[in-house]
Every structure is written in structure tokens, then in C-alpha cells.
Amino acid sequence: MYREDAVIPAPVQFIKKFATDAVLISGIFGLAIIGVKDKARDKFLYGDEIRELSSPTDEYKVVFPIRKGNDFTFVVGTWVGPEVSMDGIRYHGISDDEKLEVEVRIVLKSLADNTTRVYFEADFKYKGSFMDRFLGRKAEDLAKYIVEDRFITYVRAYFKSFLELLPTMGQDGKPSISSFSLTPIIEFTGEAKDILAKINETIAQLSVAVIKVDIDKLNCRIVAENKEMKKAMCKSEGKIKTDFEALSMIMTARGQGKMEVYGINTDEVFEF
């Protein structure tokens, strides 16, 4: 069993969405999906038949590419997952000749500042001299390859920082980002003190949201995630405050203002 961990710059629910996407995870691990299991008919679909799949599946026919130097050995088998439990997210596979087994477990721990520590466990098992004969490598070497060379390399080189995913305000003052759309959920107009109460109420109800506040010459942007304020910024007559100091500017503001709340479609975040 090989174990490693890494910190990913995104909140835990984003990583969970990412880690439970079996097709994406299979590609990161280097597996080639050649068939999908149709549970209703209890059969694997291949080629054009895959178009007939009418509901999600958690069982795939895959090719395991196993490297030896600059050469590869290709082994066909079955890949199952994700299996989500209190212990984490589990994927496992077995070759058709039942000589090779692989198991990967992913455990997520939420950290501060919209980051997540991801714990990886990978285990290879094989019967007889299968791996020695074809690979000349230890099972632990292959587990390390899955975790470090595949998964962690992907995170380092390709995974977008959560801060890069956060929306910016366009020239029209509305949130915009090319990666995903923002859907207006709530609009509220009232006194500044009522707006602050509405902000607290909104943050307690939503998983991920962007809040835009305008009160006279005071302009604020707040990001809420997992029912907590994660980032806030207010600007007034050239002065900029962040986080709780930003909220204090709303507390001391006077007059009528407007609050707009935008919800993020998290499914679109993972459309790379």
C-alpha cells in the first residue's frame, strides 16, 4: 500500500465533485475506457453501442497501460467506482485474467482559505510472477506511479486554483467569468443595516455564492462558501478594505442600498 497527500487550492465540495467523476479520474490514472456497463441489461457496451447507455454507470471495461522503460504492456480489465463512504472515495479494478488488482482510495479534509488536503492510497496486487515477468517492477512502484506521477502531477500542472475560478466584476458591474455562468438568486433593496442582516442570512443558507453590495459610494463583493464568508472586499472613495474590515464598512454605512446574490453552477466548474 502506497500513501501520499497533497494540498489542492479548492474547497472540499469542489474536490469531491472532481474525485467522484469516474471518467475524469480514469483518464488521470492513465486508464483507457473501452466499454461501459449497462446495468439494466447487465452487459458491457462497446463502440457505437455506448450511445445506447441511458443512465450513469459505475463499472467500466478499461485498458491498464503498464510501463516498462519506454515500452508498455496493455492489460484489459474492469474498473469500478466511485464507491463513496465515510472512509473516503474508492475505485478498484481487476484484469480479466484476475492476475492484477488495483485499488485507489481518496480521502478529503477541508482546510482554511478554500484549500483541501487530499490523502491518496494506492495498492497493487498480483498473482504469480505476472508483474515481475512483464514489468520488472514492484507493486509499490506502480502504486507510487499512480499517485505521484499521475494524480499529483495533474493537480500541480492542470488543476485550476479556486481563486482563478472565482468571478470578476465586468465593466457593467455584473459578475462574469468565462469558465462558468452565474445565476442571480436574490435581489434586495433597503437600508444599510437591513442589507447586513440579509448578507448574514444569505451566507447561512447557500453553499457557494457571490454577493454584490452597493450603498451610495460604497461597493462591496463577498464570496461565501460552505455557509461561511471566505473573502470580502469593499471600496469607498479610494479606500479598500478586506474581510471583516470590509464588513465594518457596511455596518457604518448609511442610506439606501442594493444587494444582489449570484449562485454558482458548480457542475460547470469542471468543464476544462
Q: What do you see in this structure?
A:
- The protein is of the alpha+beta class and 272 residues long.
- It is built from seven helices and 16 strands.
- The protein has an eight-stranded antiparallel beta sheet. Strands 11-16-12-13-14-15 form a six-stranded antiparallel beta sheet, with helices on one face.
- A hairpin with a 2-residue loop joins strand 5 and strand 6.
Write the layout of secondary structure elements.
Blueprint lengths: L1 E7 L3 H8 L2 H8 L2 E7 L4 E4 L12 E10 L2 E15 L2 E8 L4 E11 L5 E11 L3 H5 L4 H19 L4 H4 L2 E2 L5 E2 L5 E10 H14 L2 E8 L2 E8 L2 E9 L2 E4 H9 L4 E9 L8
Antiparallel strand pairs: 1-8, 2-3, 2-4, 4-5, 5-6, 6-7, 7-8, 9-10, 11-16, 12-13, 12-16, 13-14, 14-15
In short:
The protein has 272 residues and is α+β, with helices and mostly antiparallel strands.
Characteristics:
272 residues, alpha+beta, Alpha-D-Glucose-1,6-Bisphosphate, Chain A, domain 4, 2 domains, eight-stranded antiparallel beta sheet, six-stranded antiparallel beta sheet, 16 strands, disordered C terminus
Strand content: over 45%
- Sheet with the most strands, sense and barrel status: 8 strands, antiparallel
CATH architectural group of the largest domain: 2-Layer Sandwich
**What overall form do the CA principal axes indicate?**
elongated
Q: Please identify the top-level CATH class of the largest domain.
A: Alpha Beta
Please give the number of β-strands.
16
The topology string of helices and strands comes to EHHEEEEEEEHHHEEEHEEEEHE
| Low-confidence runs of at least 5 consecutive residues | 165-181, 266-272
Q: What do we call the CATH homologous superfamily of the largest domain?
A: START domain
How widely separated are the two ends?
31 Å
Helices and strands: which structural class? Answer: alpha+beta
Could you tell me the radius of gyration in angstroms?
24 Å
Helix content: 10-25%
For the residues shown, what is the average pLDDT? 79
* Quaternary: single chain
Annotation field: number of helices = 7
Number of domains: 2
- Identify the strand order in the major beta sheet: 1-8-7-6-5-4-2-3
